[in-house]
Design goal:
Elements: E1 5-14, E2 17-23, E3 34-35, E4 38-40, H1 44-47, H2 60-73, E5 76-89, E6 95-107, E7 117-123, H3 125-128, H4 137-148
Parallel strand pairs: 1-6
Antiparallel strand pairs: 1-2, 1-4, 2-3, 2-7, 5-6
Length: 160
């Protein structure tokens, strides 16, 4: 059985615009590319909390996403909901499962962690097209935008 990392990615929306961040040029994967906040699921995201049942923790992915957003950009979010998932095998041979969620901005002022990201913008889906985004991020922004406009993310197809 091959192990893979689980990554939570947050499409944070505020007044119909989405937060994108520019990765540090020192990052091993996707240096200087634009993306959305997120990060890896860590065992302590749930084992440090009391169990919700005798054996299990609930809402682990949502708590991971909230922690990663807080760590990366110092924002708090609410109303986290699923948009899509994707899988990849990186150039270094490590597989990842990425779960992307739409979240509403709750409060906080953006403070970037320079080792993680060096710039940020609030953009519409159309404005996001002008940035050098990691492959798939623009697709996810359009999916989230469709949901905000009353549509569904699963009806989305990449434009060729």
């Amino acid at each position: 059985m091959e192990l893979f990392e689980v990554v939570m990615a947050g499409l944070i929306q505020k007044n119909g615009k989405f937060l994108i961040i520019q990765r540090s040029p020192d990052k091993k994967r996707f240096p200087s590319k634009w993306t959305i906040p997120g990060g890896k699921l860590e065992t302590t995201d749930y084992t440090s909390l009391p169990k919700d049942t005798e054996d299990y923790w609930y809402n682990v992915l949502e708590k991971t996403l909230a922690r990663e957003i807080q760590e990366e950009v110092n924002l708090e979010v609410k109303n986290i909901r699923y948009i899509t998932s994707l899988a990849t095998v990186h150039d270094d041979g490590n597989p990842s499962l990425v779960i992307s969620c739409l979240a509403d901005y709750s409060h906080g002022d953006i403070q970037l962690q320079p080792e993680e990201c060096v710039d940020f913008k609030w953009v519409s889906a159309k404005e996001a097209e002008r940035y050098d985004l990691i492959d798939g991020i623009l697709d996810e922004i359009y999916m989230a935008d469709a949901v905000l406009k009353g549509g569904r993310a699963d009806n989305w197809k990449r434009k060729s």
